[in-house]
Write a structure and sequence with these properties.
The complex is a heterodimer of chains A (153) and B (254). Chain A is an all-alpha fold. Chain A is 48% helix and 0% strand. Chain A has nine helices and no strands. Classes of the chains: A mainly alpha (153), B alpha+beta (254). The interface between A and B is large, with 37 and 52 residues.
Chain lengths: 153, 254
């Protein structure tokens, strides 16, 4: 019996070594793996919430027209009726959540209008385009066109 | 007796399942903001994107809105979305001229006038949110991943800034944020779409050239778009299974 035990001592040593290696692996894994890693896949589950945590800056059209019903009515039926308010007026989520705190700016018509309407041959045909130098030397576009209902009446 | 125990267990299981979201919602109710309670279910969505090239006017509002919404640095010219202009000379169609001055942020000047008739159009670009993303495959630490709802996201706490993913992306949609030295990219406005809003670029696009779509929602207009239009994805030979579908895509676009 003793002899037999003696002949298998190297196996016991091997098993112990294996056990230590597994333990070391688990300790290193525990130390390096962040919390929630592997819950949904090969990543930290909390990263989903991190990505969601960013504040919203553009309130969205629905929020704008909730209060500014007059502008929504003015735009109805016109060629600009489906444009987003914040495309021209800038991101206004802070204004939407607290209307007193800040307000939208009145966009510079020459810059804002021409962003879309200055002639550019790369643009699809059908979009009304002008060469501003020929169309109106100076003065704001809003002298003739109402941006919320841009056709000439 | 048997049916009584069964009913009891069923009732108990039902209460247990219902109580988990209710407990989460309760925190918001106690805080006085019940509308902030989270009811977003990642398993119920599979986000994709549709782009109609023939509607893009190259105004660059999407680029501006994206930078505002996601706090993308104005310089040194990093973009989550940008617009390219292609100008193709019919005599040399294999070498299109592609430009994107400041990503299209300031719009585009008209092409120089000449007698030659050229083909020219705008192509908006963004992360294609591939379902077999090369960037996810190469990340050594699991900092880039496919979310359960089909969005390729970055874990900024975990990212080492090793740039493997920047190299792996066939569409060039990733950049290293010069402030944090970790990678940044389009999140499909994950903070907006999980709150029921559309992306900032889709919000401001004046012509409807961009459309966010939930491929798991059978009533989403993206299904009609994919059915009625001839669509293609960028670099299909890369087998990335891109979910950014382009209608009116010219063969010269890379």
């Amino acid at each position: 019996m003793g002899r037999r035990w003696g002949s298998s001592r190297h196996l016991v040593r091997l098993a112990a070594l294996f056990g230590v290696a597994v333990l070391a692996f688990l300790v290193v894994r525990w130390a390096l793996m962040p919390e929630g890693f592997g819950v949904y896949g090969h990543y930290r589950a909390g990263a989903l919430d991190d990505n969601r945590a960013r504040p919203v800056r553009h309130a969205g059209q629905a929020a704008c027209v909730e209060c500014h019903t007059d502008v929504a009515e003015a735009r109805a039926g016109g060629r600009h009726q489906r444009l987003s308010c914040e495309g021209c007026h800038g991101p206004l989520a802070s204004h939407a959540s607290d209307p007193g705190s800040s307000s939208g700016s009145r966009p510079d018509p020459r810059k804002t209008c021409l962003r879309c309407h200055e002639q550019n041959r790369s643009r699809p045909s059908g979009l009304p385009q002008i060469v501003v130098a020929d169309h109106a030397d100076e003065g704001p576009c809003t002298a003739c066109h109402q941006p919320h209902q841009p056709g000439l009446s | 007796m048997e049916s009584g125990r069964r009913a009891f267990l069923e009732q108990g299981a039902r209460l247990l399942v219902l109580s988990m979201p209710a407990a989460l919602a309760w925190e918001h109710i106690l805080a006085g903001t019940p509308e902030a309670a989270d009811n977003y279910d990642t398993a119920a969505h599979w986000w994709g994107f549709a782009i109609d090239i023939e509607q893009c006017i190259g105004c660059g509002l999407c680029v501006r809105a994206c930078k505002d919404e996601n706090d993308v640095p104005l310089e040194p010219f990093t973009f989550r979305t940008w617009v390219e202009r292609y100008v193709i000379d019919p005599d040399d169609p294999d070498h299109p001229m592609v430009e994107s001055p400041n990503g299209g942020y300031d719009g585009f000047a008209d092409i120089p006038s000449s007698d030659r008739k050229v083909k020219t159009f705008f192509v908006p670009k963004l992360c294609n949110h591939c379902s077999s993303s090369p960037c996810v495959q190469v990340c050594p630490v699991g900092a880039t991943f496919d979310s359960p709802d089909g969005v390729v996201l970055v874990d900024k706490q975990r990212c080492l800034g090793c740039r493997y993913c920047v190299q792996a992306c066939p569409y060039g949609t990733r950049y290293i944020d010069p402030r944090t030295h970790v990678v940044d990219k389009c999140t499909l406005c994950y903070h907006r779409i999980t709150r029921g809003l559309t992306t900032a670029c889709c919000e401001v696009c004046p012509t409807g050239a961009r459309m966010l779509g939930d491929l798991k929602n059978p009533n989403d207009p993206i299904h009609e778009f994919l059915r009625s239009r001839k669509v293609h994805v960028l670099k299909p030979q890369m087998a990335t299974h891109s979910k950014a579908y382009y209608a009116g895509l010219d063969g010269s676009v890379r």
